[in-house]
Specification:
The longest helix is centred in the last third of the chain and has 43 residues. By secondary structure, the chain is mainly α. It has five helices and two strands, in the order ααββααα. A hairpin with a 4-residue loop joins β1 and β2.
Length: 150
């Protein structure tokens, strides 16, 4: 009976958090439930495994096994716990990590963003060329190629 009361209380607390959009409580509760150190290569009963790769056998001496996925997850876990110690909230810790990853990858994605912006800028001209030369696809390709070269 005591365990049922405790579960009911946890359920009510969780539902109140969802209703009031208090995501920190949910993230903190989930962090207490999921222990990443218990995750194994195979997720029991699902047939799924952690991402990885195997090199083909070339008859060469074997290299030491490196668990890149496990190393990455260990780094993320340590980062979340350290940020939790600083901020006092798992939700804020996760948001900080997401912002850091976005900041790190922004320079890598900048050229993609710039190219998309340029395409939006010249799209009306491309549409005009397609309409003007709709009977001659070769001329459309040539004109759009010149437009891209500019």
């Amino acid at each position: 009976h005591h365990a049922a009361d405790l579960l009911q209380h946890d359920w009510q607390t969780t539902m109140e958090a969802v209703q009031h959009f208090d995501w920190n409580i949910i993230a903190d509760a989930a962090a207490d439930v999921v222990d990443p150190s218990k995750i194994t290569e195979s997720v029991g009963g699902t047939g799924m495994t952690k991402p990885g790769f195997e090199l083909p056998s070339l008859g060469l001496p074997s290299l030491p096994s490196v668990d890149l996925w496990g190393s990455w997850m260990g780094f993320l876990q340590a980062s979340i716990f350290k940020l939790h110690d600083i901020t006092g909230s798992y939700g804020a810790s996760i948001i900080a990590i997401v912002l850091a990853v976005k900041a790190i990858t922004y320079p890598l994605n900048y050229k993609v963003y710039a190219a998309q912006y340029e395409m939006q800028a010249i799209q009306p001209e491309i549409d005009r060329i397609k309409e003007q030369y709709k009977d001659n696809p070769e001329l459309v390709n040539m004109r759009t190629g010149v437009l891209f070269a500019e």
